[in-house]
Amino acid sequence: MANTSRIDKDKNTIKIAHCTITTKMISNMQKAALLPHMESGKCVAIRGPLKHKEVTLVRLGGKHLDKMLIAPGRIIKSNMKEPNLCRTQAEVELNGSLNDLIENALGNHLILTYGRIEPSLIDFCKFKGINPVLIK
User: Domains, the chain, ranges and CATH?
Assistant: First the structure.
């Protein structure tokens, strides 16, 4: 999961951040750190660099969970260490239009997964009767 933290229409990028991440997604554990949770200052949160590679952003939503936003892109920057954002941070350059992503947003939290998995997600949507909203 990731929170949408910033957008840059000129660069067609979205900056996402979250205080939790599976360590298997961190590209270099020697550059990872355990820090206080950003909002509360309590417990710990993981900060670490992500692989600069193709990703898919996903959000299931709609009144009856009947829509799935699917946005392929590429991580172009990570581990920016901005103190006012959740700890693990990445900037994703979208393949499709940032304006389309904004206009079709189903909520703030997005799932980020490595790889281009749109075909599998579209097949899943067909199987479950979900309307895929592909940002291309």
Answer: 2-134 (3.20.14.10)
